[in-house]
Amino acid sequence: MKISILIMNAYGMGGTIRATFNLADELSRRHEVEIVSVFQHKDRPFFPLSDRVRLSSLVDLRPDARKWWKFGVASRLKKPSTLLHPEERAYDNFSAESDRALTRYLADLRTDVLVTTRAGLNIAAARLARDGVTLIGQEHLHFGAHKPGILAEIRDSYQRLDAIVTLTDADHAEYARMLDGAPTRVYTIGNGLPAGPRPQSRLDNRVVIAAGRLVRVKGYDRLLDAFAKVVEKRPDWKLRVYGQGTQADKLSRRARRLGLHNNVAFMGPTNDIEGELAKASIHVITSRFEGFGMTIVEAFAAGVPVVSFDCPQGPREIITSGENGVLVPDGDIDAFADALLSLMDDPEKMRRLAENGRRTATRYDISEVAGRWDEMLAELHRTGTA
Amino acid sequence: MVALAASARLDADDVLRIRWAEPPADGTSLTLRRDGAAHAIDLDGEAADLSRLDLTPGTWSVHAADAEVITTDPGFSLDGLAEYARRPRGRALRTFRAPSGGLRVSVRTVEPYAEVTAVHPGEEKLALEGFLAYGATPADAEIVATRRKTAQQVPGTVSLTGDHWHAELPNAPFAVETERGFWDLRLGGLIVATWIDDIPDKKNKVRFPARHVQRDTDRVRVRAYYTDKDHLAIATTVVPNAEAEAA
């Protein structure tokens, strides 16, 4: 079976890209798998990808590619997209040129199964993909993150997809309700971790780690506020924030204003987040919402307990508070600081949470996750859609 | 063949201790390799004394019975790095796990210097804390900031407790008539840097608050910063009062 996975940008960094690569690697053991990136701005992807998976792109934005652009490309890149809804969260990345490339790609699809990985692409596939291809839309954002305008489009077009894959049970319930009566099937399949020896934390560094793009939704402003309260009592603890993004300068200023300059380092991007997690003793998630929370599972696998705001939707489905991590009422900065302090003061609890987290992580083994994809594909095939 | 270490750490005497998760077929020796060079070393139980090897500076991979040693251990603790650097030595080794999982030993030629562990920019003075690394002995109890272009100097005081040092530099003398200045620091003649916190290239990762020295028509912004080599230095910038107020 040939499976094509359409992703906005395979050359960037982030949980969705890592999860997509992990899944593609694993599925390529049994299927012909390709990743099609709408945009390409670098020669190579940031994360490693198996040789078995073919990677290509539709819109080449690399500086060297400009000389090959045909007439009209440059001007179309400046025109806004009319194919995607302006409320698609990554709308600004798309353009009339990506509309043209996507429309052509979807009309000429040479594949058995097309997996699209965000709302805008799911809608585009539902509307424009040629007949005879099984269409699977993945939702990496949680249901409530969609604004009313794009939600109406989702409601209208997702029923033309063969299946929707959500990362959480809560989202499954929302989409099942929305698609009630439609032929579209809804599945919950989380993100998976590749097999192999993984770095393990000894919990011997007084280091708290956060990882993710430096954008508002990740809530690093809330993290810095909480950490400022932590260092009042535990000035020997450090916070390392991995990632880059539009809020980098703003967050750096906030850290200085809070007097955290000896305690916080903005580490930039890393292609070895597992290795960096293993140097830490606590992983923190302060997101305003989190579709899944790939780093939570990665932290568990590295034996690092997780403290997270109980934001919609991912963290509460992965973390069992008190068992493998701590869930803090969303937005309660004081409670977040207290949760960190109580873990710092209780190494025994830290070890117990870490041990339980390692067990939780085994549920997200990529072979299990890919197995569920295979079951889904077989089911869709039986019902005549694949 | 597999050789998987659950723990691989170097102690302050440069003895590498490995606890195997999956031991190699032959667990009696290790080989360190780099650019075609190889050094074999006996494995005495789980310990290999690397102090006896003539390792040139660079990064060495570790092999056992022809298999690269893979490790799940990050290879060091931050406290362990500090303890290691507190010993007098001219060569520093460090074990770490490469992103591929392979065990590595980095080898560096080192000189005594003053490691910075905290920076406290105050309204009147900049206070610094740290420890003396690799057996450093300051020539005197003075910290001196020297302006790169003009060699102007601002002296400050240093107090020592064991190998821990505390230094203070007044802000006001940095307000010399100039546009922009960069000042390098020496503590009792020693380089002042932060090298063992496992955060390389700190320039854009760690930033310190600025303080201002008020003058008649302008103010001078004084800010500690890390250079490209992770030395601690001081940058001064003249900001006209009008501009500072507008900002």
Explain what the structure shows.
The complex is a heterodimer of chains A (386) and B (247). Chain A contains 14 helices and 13 strands. Chain A has 386 residues and is of the alpha/beta class. Chain A folds into 2 domains: 2-194 and 365-382, Rossmann fold (3-Layer(aba) Sandwich); 207-362, Glycogen Phosphorylase B (Rossmann fold), CATH 3.40.50.2000. In chain A, the strands form 2 sheets. In chain A, strands 3-2-1-4-5-6-7 form a 7-stranded parallel sheet, sandwiched between helices. The longest helix of chain A is centred in the C-terminal third of the chain and has 17 residues, at 366-382. Chain B folds into 2 domains: 3-109; 114-246, no CATH class. Chain B is built from 2 helices and 19 strands. Chain B has helices at 78-85, 241-246, and strands at 3-10, 15-22, 29-34, 37-42, 47-49, 58-64, 67-71, 91-97, 103-109, 113-121, 125-133, 142-147, 153-161, 164-170, 180-187, 190-193, 211-214, 218-226, 232-240. In chain B, strands 1, 2, 3, 4, 5, 6, 7, 8 and 9 form a 9-stranded mixed sheet that branches. The longest helix of chain B is centred in the N-terminal third of the chain and has 8 residues, at 78-85. Chain B is elongated. The relative contact order of chain B is 0.13. The model of chain B has no long low-confidence stretch (mean pLDDT 94). The chains are: A alpha/beta (386), B mainly beta (247).
